[in-house]
Amino acid sequence: MIARLIILLLLISACQPELEKQPPLRLTVMTFNAWGAGANQGKSIDATLAVIRRINPDVIGLQEVRREAVPCTSICPPDGPSVAGDVAEALGYYVYEQQQENAALWANAILSKYPVTRSTENDLGVVLAVGDREIALLNIHLTDYPYQPYQALGIPYDDAPLLHSEYELIAAANDARGHALDLLMADLESVKNVDAVFVTGDFNEPSHRDWTQRAAEIGRHPLKVKYPSALRVEEAGFIDTYRTFFADEIAAPGLTWTPTTAADDKDDHHDRIDYVFARAAGVKVESAAVVGEESPDSDIAVSSPWPSDHRAVVATVIIP
């Protein structure tokens, strides 16, 4: 009797449909310092719209959605209205304006194809409802003063002192951006239980993965520097999507600063300072790219006039 019952239960179990596994989630995330989206140059948002339409990301961290005050020196507050709402309306995105004033924000906004369910305490990000998953995007803009590449290369930038060692450059970077990173870490703690977290932003600081000994030896950068800000994000469990996809910093420098000056300009230094970081169990980077003008420095070139002084970065990831 017991044997028959066991066989019956096995037959019933075999006939039950398997529970459907949640399909992998594919997300395209973009960071873009929009430089006022035309406002700084007295132009419309059309070129900015062309960039975003070309990429068609699911989520965008935008920085500098307001124009720069005039005159604009190293201390340059935002001025005028935000263009983020107009951009979102034209493209059919939800929009979240990050309106707190703190060390990690400079006229930031988040655009998303998915609705926002809540924001973080320091206003650095939001949680999105992506089907039955929760995805967080934190979007920051860190100060550009003092700017360590200029300090290392003797490029004048107001009264910032020249620096000569890795130790000095790391200390200066921590002094400039450490408090902003503290705010980021606090907001990351509040979203630690969601399915995936992204950090986008203009860090105004290079990566430890780019200012390497190899890069110094070929003269790309003046010395090796283990810059702290991107490193601190990685130590919080994130991957640098661009450098994960393009592991060789020599072959793929990923320069986002700046399309406005020539590579041999003695008063500037081209670098990778804009990032898309991702954190999720089993996350895979399907693709990553620098988006910019028609140039060897752009992995994806947009034919319209490039509207910003930064190139954008986009990454497509798979979340199991």
Which structural traits does this protein have?
320 residues; alpha+beta; seven-stranded mixed β-sheet; six-stranded mixed β-sheet; 8 helices
Helix content: 25-40%
The helix count comes to: 8
* Topology as a string of helices (H) and strands (E): HEHEEEHEEEEEHHEHHEHEEEE
Q: Stretches where pLDDT falls below 50 for ≥5 residues?
A: 5-9, 15-19
Task: Please list the strands of the largest sheet in the order they lie side by side.
Answer: 5-6-2-1-15-13-14
Gyration radius from CA atoms, angstroms:
22 Å
pLDDT average, as an integer? 94
TL;DR?
Helix 5 runs parallel beside helix 7 (228-235). The chain is built from eight helices and 15 strands. The chain has 320 residues and is of the alpha+beta class.
What can you tell me about this protein's structure?
It is globular and about 55 Å long. The N and C termini lie far apart (44 Å). Strand 1, helix 2 and strand 2 form a beta-alpha-beta unit. The chain contains 8 helices and 15 strands. It has 320 residues and is an alpha+beta fold.
